[in-house]
Amino acid sequence: MVMTDIIEFQQYPDGRLDVANASIYIGLAEKTLAMMRTKGTGPKYIKRGKVFYFLKDIDDWINEGESVSTAQRSKALTR
């Protein structure tokens, strides 16, 4: 039997998530997302007074990382 946790988050009708809900969806702290924004390593975001993420951009970012292992990334950075 496989047990899965259900997470609840809120999104705007246009697919936007605020930082709090994006962090719940991704499973990272809000502060981690802030650090990723400054380094340019996180999912795409928009800033319209407040920071928002589109659910599609988060999913794309998550799926982007599927094929790259830590070892492969280290090799690429040292070249």
Question: How does this structure look, described?
Answer:
The protein has 79 residues and is α+β, with helices and mostly antiparallel strands. The chain has one domain. 47% of the residues lie in helices and 14% in strands. It is built from four helices and three strands. A three-stranded antiparallel beta sheet has the order 1-3-2. Strand 2 and strand 3 form a beta hairpin.
Into which percentage range does the β-strand content fall?
A: 5-15%
Distance between the termini: 45 Å
Cα Rg:
15 Å
**Overall geometry:** globular
Number of domains: 1
> Mean pLDDT, as a whole number?
86
Separate helix tally:
4
Question: How helix-rich are the residues, as a percent range?
Answer: 40-55%
| Strand order in space, largest sheet | 1-3-2
Which structural class do you get from the secondary structure elements? alpha+beta
* SSE string, helices as H and strands as E: EHHEEHH
The count of β-strands is 3
Low-confidence stretches: none
* Largest beta-sheet details: 3 strands, antiparallel
Which features characterize this protein?
alpha+beta, three-stranded antiparallel β-sheet, 79 residues
SSE inventory with pairings:
Blueprint: E1 16-18, H1 19-26, H2 30-39, E2 46-48, E3 50-54, H3 55-64, H4 70-78
Antiparallel strand pairs: 1-3, 2-3
Task: Summarize this entry quickly.
47% of the residues lie in helices and 14% in strands.
